[in-house]
Amino acid sequence: MKKILCLLLASLTLLLAGCGISDQEVMDSIPTLVIQAKSDIKKLPTFGYDWTVTGRWGNGTSVIADTAHPLEAQEDLTTVTLSAGEEVSLHFSKLPDSVTVTYWSADETDRENSTQVETTFLDSSFHFIVPEITGQMVILISGTWSSYDDVSGTVNYAFRTAA
User: Fold this and answer.
1) From its phi and psi, is residue 132 left (phi > 0), alpha (psi between -120 and 50) or beta?
2) Nearest-5° angle of CA 148, CA 146, CA 157?
3) CA–CA separation, 45 vs 155, rounded Å?
4) What's the CATH fold of domain 22-161?
5) Do the strands 78-80 and 151-161 form a parallel or antiparallel pair, or are they unpaired?
6) Which of 81, 86, 92, 151 is at 20 to 30 A from 23, Cα to Cα?
7) CA 35 to CA 135: how far, in whole Å?
8) Where are the domains of the chain?
């Protein structure tokens, strides 16, 4: 009887250990973003996130990646060619519940001196119009996922406009 109980406990332990979510599975589930404008199409890398994947039994694994402020990381950002007044489409691999688009002049030094751009949702993607400003911009796109059963969180994507 003792051997059977030990065998059952060992089997249960192995079963539960196999139910976990690996860090790689979490990383692979983070949505990607492709931005499309008349003049350019680019896949943007993530720029910080707080992401959780929930398993079948309610167990979850989270990852958080903090980054410098986009103004401080301009040299490392993807460059996208955009024109003032141009419409930009945001194509996410997993549709977010909400999206915010914030921009700064690339010459700005005050992090708080940002402007938020209105987004619209049309044809399964979010859209925004490139603001009319002189010079380069640094743009931060933040997506939030909260209505899914298996994933949730916020993912940021940043880029700068070409000269």
Assistant:
1) beta
2) 110
3) 10
4) Immunoglobulin-like (2.60.40)
5) parallel
6) 92
7) 20
8) 22-161
